[in-house]
Write a structure and sequence with these properties.
Elements lengths: L10 H15 L5 H14 L3 H13 L4 H5 L12 H14 L7 H7 L5 H24 L10
Helix pairs in contact: 1-7, 2-3, 2-5, 2-7, 5-6, 5-7
């Protein structure tokens, strides 16, 4: 049972969070890559609602079932590009608040992204971690999300 429904969240709070979402959407980051990262964060944080949402959003971008079903074990597959592997590694480290982002990991990002994109990627990962913490705390019901 939901503790707090989406409609019960203070309007100012949702507006501020959505302004960050809009900023990220307007960035140069690829939507499919963002959704891949978002689904991975949702998996790590064990957020059923978020997994449902980002699985559906990722599928909507044209992502394959094989890649979505093996995302949680991406290191053991050859289905992801070097760029995606780099983003997934960064995503996992940034989601684990006790992990350190080494110079090696950061430098690997610079092969694929400029400074602004690295900032936006970091914000996107942090933003999704915020969403997953809110959604898990409020206990949103999984399964009802519809892609718009």
């Amino acid at each position: 049972m939901e503790r707090i429904t989406f409609n019960q969240i203070p309007k100012g709070m949702i507006e501020k969070l959505m302004s960050i979402e809009n900023y990220i959407k307007e960035s140069t980051l690829d939507l499919q890559l963002l959704e891949l990262m978002r689904l991975r964060v949702a998996q790590i944080n064990k957020c059923a609602y978020c997994i449902d949402m980002h699985y559906k959003e990722l599928k909507h971008t044209g992502e394959t079932e094989l890649r979505m079903s093996t995302l949680s074990v991406w290191k053991e597959t050859s289905f992801f590009t070097e760029k995606e592997n780099t983003v997934l590694q960064f995503t996992e480290l940034l989601t684990d608040t006790s992990a350190e982002i080494s110079d090696e990991v950061f430098d690997s990002l610079t092969k694929f992204f400029d400074r602004d994109e690295i900032c936006n990627l970091t914000l996107a990962i942090s933003q999704l971690n915020t969403w997953t913490k809110l959604v898990r705390t409020f206990k949103f019901t999984a399964g009802n999300y519809e892609v718009k």
